[in-house]
Amino acid sequence: MSKNKTEAPPMFPVEELAKDAGIPAWELAALRVGMNWAEGKQVARTEFDHALNRLRTRPLGGGAL
Predict the structure, then answer these.
(1) Within a domain: residue 43?
(2) Which DSSP string corresponds to the chain?
(3) 9 backbone φψ class: left, alpha, beta (φ>0; ψ -120 to 50)
(4) Is 40 within a domain?
């Protein structure tokens, strides 16, 4: 076995991360559509935070994230 293996970050359902972040349901819906995430999709907290930032800072009518 390789000694250089790194552990994968913990994964959480996007709904749980949204609840922890206190984002409203409409914003979670927009995030899921923009990222093409199905209900129950599990992602790392950093990936979620990055996607949420991209949603919040994109230009109006900016299309997909």
Answers:
(1) yes
(2) --TT--PPPPEEEHHHHHHHHT--HHHHHHHHHHHTPPTT-EEEHHHHHHHHHHHHHSPTT----
(3) beta
(4) yes
Q: What is the mean pLDDT of residues 38-44?
A: 95
Amino acid present at 53: N
Separation of alpha carbons 53 and 15, rounded Å: 16
pLDDT in tens, 13-36: 999 999 999 999 999 999 999 999
- Residue 5 domain-assigned (yes or no): no
Least confident of 23-32, 33-42, 55-64: 55-64
Q: Domain count of the chain?
A: 1
